[in-house]
Amino acid sequence: MPPGQPGRPQAPGTRPLKTLERVISKSGLGSRTEARSWIHAGRVRVNGRVTENPDQWVDLVLDVVLFDDRPLAKREHVYVLLYKPTGYITTYKDPEGRPTVYDLLADVDTFVAPVGRLDLDTSGLLLLTNDTQLTERITNPDSHVPKTYLVKASMRLSDEQLQQLRDGVLLSDGPTRPAEVTRVRDSGKYTHLEITLTEGRYRQVRRMIEALGAVALKLVRLRIGSLRIGALPIGHWRPLTAREVSQLRGETAAPPQR
Ligand code: URA
Question: Can 79-141+227-251 and 146-224 be said to share one CATH topology?
Fold first, then answer.
């Protein structure tokens, strides 16, 4: 029997049990760290009693959980598309005090987490949601969701170099999967190209460009699957439409079981 549920009969497998910390954070009120601190601060009651143990099991059907004496709202999924500018980090808090993407989402009243990250010096489409299942489906390398970037390379790249990007280049963590690559234009000393990857390794686009002896001077994410930034101004966000959400779900069908 889970701790903190004295005397309650428990039919294994028939009741959704979660830790109190998870129940609070999943309700959309805040991160897991915040949930723990609120529980420690005595702001949470389970069945009328203040409960300061974030690891206490809670029965989602039988137990009544109150936060600041109010029942938890039924959690709805929230999907946010942010046009991230450069200079913002994709984490909740930065020990160095740099701006974070959450500074741009102050008016989103539900806690949403980024679906993958963009570097400090990358701009473009950042999806944030509290739908952990969709997040897992998009970020799981087996689901091969295409992500498209616009790159300004620090030199003119030859057709052979673009072909190398298509075929795959060898990075320190292994060869890259085949990619779609289009030359957008050459201007002065630079090549602008679009690259679509079906994986999302750490600083992958930058490292692929470096493997050719160049540097990505500018990197903008344009698309995740069918989702596009469209006319959204930089630094702004908008909710996804129901159609966009269902399209993303369709494109990220659970990877086959092996
Ligand atoms: N690839 C990178 O190198 N950086 C990003 O931010 C995203 C993809």
Answer: yes
Q: Which atom of ligand 1 is nearest to the CA of 149?
A: 8
142 is catalytic: no
Q: Where are the domains of the chain?
A: 17-71, 79-141+227-251, 146-224
Check 119, 121, 131, 159 and give the catalytic one: 119
Q: Does the model's pTM come out above 0.90?
A: no
| Nearest alpha carbon to residue 85 among 216, 232, 194, 241 | 232
CATH code given to domain 79-141+227-251: 3.30.70.580
Number of neighbouring beta carbons within 10 Å of residue 227: 21
In this structure, the strands spanning 227-228 and 237-239 are unpaired
Q: Whose CA is nearest to atom 3 of ligand 1?
A: 203
Q: Which CA distances in Å does 159 have to 59, 78, 165?
A: 60, 43, 10
Quote the ligand 1 centre to 115 CA distance (angstroms). 13
Residue-by-residue DSSP string for 219-258: EEEEEETTEE-TTPPTT-EEEPPHHHHHHHHHHTPPPPP-
Q: Is 66 helix (H, G, I), strand (E, B) or coil?
A: strand
Q: Which two three-digit tokens encode residue 15? A: 């009741």
CATH top-level class of 146-224: alpha beta
pLDDT tens digit string along 49-100? 999 999 999 886 678 899 999 988 766 899 999 999 999 999 888 889 999 9
Query: Which pLDDT score is estimated for 16?
Result: 60
96-124: pLDDT as tens digits: 999 999 999 988 877 899 999 999 999 99
The CATH architecture of the domain made up of 17-71 is Roll (3.10)
Name the helix (H) or strand (E) containing 165.
helix 159-167
